[in-house]
Amino acid sequence: MKYFLFDLDGTLTDPGVGITNSVMYALEKLGRPVPPREELYAFVGPPLTESFVNLCGVPREDAPLAIAYYREYFGPRGLLENEIYPGIPELLADIKAAGGKVILATAKPLHFAERILEHFNIKQFFDFTAGNNMTEKYKKKCGLIEDVLQAAGVTPDSKKDCVMVGDRSHDVEGAHEAGIAGIGVLYGYGSFAELSACAPEYIARDVEELRGIIMGLTDARP
Q: Cα dihedral angle (150, 156, 161, 162), rounded to 10 degrees?
């Protein structure tokens, strides 16, 4: 493997507090019931429109307003109510040292994603960064992955050298739809049942196990 694509939320960082606080804020401003925080962790990963509609019953026509309220909180506060998973900076550094290309592929707006990478001082490890725009151009992860692979100069023949790492089903499904391998991680917000149903090539229980898988794929020694 040469190209290593990473999801952000639930894969590189744990954004649970900031995201759920932002959702609560948005629902309160809409005058809608606020579910327990535990139920709102399902917002971590998928596009916001679908989450507000499917998880909270917000009418689709009101979803843009819900997202606007969400970002009122997330931009100045929720974005940094976040923690990087231990071992991630070292893993990214090791991939680079082994000659790999590190790529961000997140459903989060790129503007926010890059601020998070800079905050945790890991942007330096990324060869390419790709994310959504503020109007959620990418409804499925597959389109985002395909576009960033093209930007990174990956040809159809070299897709065999690519792998996507993520914690939710849409990460693995998007990877497979784009013609590349997928690694599911269990330390984020997807369950074993959710990930195994997508038949990822690998499943990692924690960052250390992920490191072992990835460094084996680079033919380097951990």
A: 50
Rounded distance, CA 65 to CA 84, Å? 30
Q: What is the DSSP letter of 8?
A: S
Structure tokens at 74: 């997330």
Question: Coil, strand or helix: which one is 147?
Answer: helix
Q: What is the pLDDT along the chain (222 residues), one digit of tens a residue?
A: 999 999 999 999 999 999 999 999 999 999 999 999 999 999 998 889 999 999 999 999 999 999 999 999 999 999 999 999 999 999 999 999 999 999 999 988 899 999 999 999 999 999 999 988 766 777 789 999 999 999 999 999 999 999 999 999 999 999 999 999 999 999 999 999 999 999 999 999 999 999 999 999 875 433
Rounded Cα distance between 185 and 175, Å, is 14
> Which 8-state DSSP code applies to residue 85?
P
Tokens describing residue 101: 């290309």
Q: Determine the residue type at 19.
A: I
Contact 154, 125 (CB under 8 A): no
Other C-beta atoms closer than 10 Å to the C-beta of 157 total 7
Domains of the chain with CATH codes? 3-14+83-217 (3.40.50.1000), 16-80 (1.10.150.240)
Cβ partners under 8 Å of residue 55, min gap 6: 35, 39, 40, 42, 43
Which are the catalytic amino acids? 7
